[in-house]
Amino acid sequence: MKFRSVFDIIGPVMIGPSSSHTAGAARIGRVARHLFGREPKSITVSLYGSFARTYKGHGTDVALIGGVLDFDTYDERIVNALTIAKEKKIKVRFTEEDAITDHPNTARIHLSDEKGELELVGISIGGGKIEVIELNGFALGLSGNSPAILVVHNDRFGAIAGVSNTLAKHEINIGHMNVSRKEKGKEALMTIEVDQNIPQIVLDEVESLPNIIQVAKISD
Amino acid sequence: MFRNVAELVELAQSKNKPISEIMIEQEMDFRGSTREDVYNQMKNNLVVMEQAVERGINEDVKSHSGLTGGDAVLLQNYMKSGNSLSGHTMLDAVSKAIATNEVNAAMGTICATPTAGSAGVVPGTLFAIREKVNPTEEQMVRYLFTSGAFGFVVANNASISGAAGGCQAEVGSATGMAAAAIVELMGGTPEQSSHAFAIALKNMLGLVCDPVAGLVEVPCVKRNAMGASNALVAADMSLAGITSRIPCDEVIDAMYKIGQTMPSALRETAQGGLAATPTGRELEAKIFGVSLDRK
Predict the structure, then answer these.
(1) Chain A window 141-200: which residues touch B at a Cβ cutoff of 8 Å?
(2) Structure pTM?
(3) ipTM of this complex
(4) pLDDT for B255-288, tens place per residue?
(5) Separation of alpha carbons A17 and A30, rounded Å
(6) Domain range for residue A196?
(7) Given an 8 Å threshold on Cβ–Cβ distance, is A13 in contact with B48?
(8) Do residues A176 and A192 lie in contact, with contact meaning Cβ atoms separated by under 8 Å?
(9) From A195, which residue of chain B is nearest by alpha-carbon distance?
(10) Count of alpha carbons within 13 Å of B94, Cβ hemisphere only?
């Protein structure tokens, strides 16, 4: 089941006009921001399908950028996100793609600054709910049927054990877990699907563990 | 955990509880949180809905494009004349649905039910019924849980996205959700709620998503208005004892299949339907300086 909470249906509280094209877009931007871990200097967004066709009318552009600026779906600053980004001297670029994607509401977000970069592909599946399907070239292959978190970490012994121990301590059961890395000893990624909704306090605890760089909830 | 409407109704019947209670209990179980937490979060949503309705029927709300705004006020004023044909509760629901979507189109704060484009139907009907039957706060919060329970089934078994399933998936779903919730509030059975949902959605099947200039304004605002009226009539029909010949879950499945066969031009791409009419294109060109179909 993709929708597990009644608040996926009655909610979110949000700035209009579209749950998929505005609230969902803000959430995709915000997940990218959380995984990047800081405010980027440059944002490039590629839009596909219905996103590409109608983004201006739906405020998809302001919402995506608002999300990257760490604004939640109900944050009224979303309306002025492009101006705010400009004031912060963040470079923003949008491209409309013609390629056909599996889902009509697809956005690819590239964030960068002098310290690094991140690329994420998110889809907005309706009612403000989103899924992240690709991160830094890794296809995430999440079922979308369980709550899931992404953990960016250093490829060191004990990092994985630390995360699983923390989840166990809070009685959260892991249903599926995948670890991928590009190079031995560098940055790696854990994709974890669990059976229970993960409260923010647990995410904070995971993030404070040694060798953990970033944690983001990508569906609940 | 219920996977379809049949299971939802059976759960409610076997436990002798209303549908809203089944949804509350499932949410508590999913979150591992208390009844109070779940109830209060929904109450907060109710407050947001009321604020949007009040703003829409009292203020001169205008969207950035200028395409929508002010109709909820027009209708409220007309109702005062006492000459309306469809009656006070009906027009009150319609105007409050419009109010919500006008606020949404103006990038105001709303609560998606189940989406932003279809956010008017559930609160519109609820706040009109409030005038008529004076429900308790708990009854109003329960209304949202009952709506949510039906929307939950639709979202998991079909779709609530206009881009995926057309307007039938958005305003259609919202209309069914509201109809089912009205029935519970008015003292009907869980089974009557399912019939009301089925009757309402059956009459929204095939509805395409064809927003002019891609904006959630034309025809979205007025489709919420008509959705609210449809919900009230479907609920009254069900409360009168009328049943849907096609079971609720099969109607939902039909909606899903219709959505899958709907051409992309009619699924929130602003390429077909009303968006592609001469006036639709003219408005689009006026708003963006260039028509989207030239791209």
Answers:
(1) 196-197
(2) 0.88
(3) 0.96
(4) 999 999 999 999 988 899 999 999 999 999 988 7
(5) 18
(6) 146-216
(7) yes
(8) yes
(9) B30
(10) 21
